[in-house]
Amino acid sequence: MKIAILSRKTNLYSTRRLVEVGRARGHEMRVIDTLRCYMNITSHRPEIHYKGEVLTGFDAVIPRIGASITFYGTAVVRQFEMMGVFPVNESVAISRARDKLRSLQLLSRKGIGLPVTGYAHSPDDVEDLIKMVGGAPMVIKLLEGTQGIGVVLTETQKAAESVIEAFMGMRANILAQEFIKEAGGMDIRCFVVGGKVIAAMKRQAKPGEFRSNLHRGGTAEPTKITPEERSTAVRAAQVMGLNVAGVDILRSNHGPVVMEVNSSPGLEGIEGATGKDVAGAIIEFIEREAKPNRTKTRGKG
To answer: Residue 236 in contact with residue 91, Cβ under 8 Å?
Structure first.
């Protein structure tokens, strides 16, 4: 098969592993810089041009799209879909997962466990917003933040009011969320491929930190998950429409709650912690599922 990987850098661990495994299994792997793609949007013969050539003959595309280029990146994936190329994650699903508010609303509608979350626009509503999520301590998140950036734990009511008002003053979109104290700075990253959790790791925040992201100095180790946690992770990925997803779960007193569903989860942390061949599972999924014009949404919004 001829498989494209949309990635800004060929030397990233996740990109390198996918290329290495794909080639070992006999596939032609090509890394394509998302931002160097440009498109001929036409009714009969949609095309993608790349550094002066027309991209043709691909069976599948693996989007590895950073949060900062979501808009352009999903447009490129959508163009591949219009050309009949099988996307590992569809453009619509990536857009859903990247919009924190939209993703939480969709998960909520399907009954997936979530922390109590509030969203407001007016500073006049801040006091009631804080009360709605259970008061301080509470977490305030920028909607556009990634890898733990733009996430603040406020210990008191006054601190929560000040942080929310400051963000609102900058016209930033924020979520107010209950703080799951019993999680103790630990979360679980479940890696879902093709409707199955193929690997899971426990991430522990460093002392004095509540964010467990490995980029923030957290540590990771393999963990066994409960049937309820497994089901929650699979259902969350399905609600987003993602074939490959990293689902972050907290263990709360009222069961597993989903913090985030990541459409381009990194492979280095999960493979290093668990010893599982996650890249191989993604390539195997493509081998099973990739057929021309298999995109469910066919490039729709």
So the answer is: no
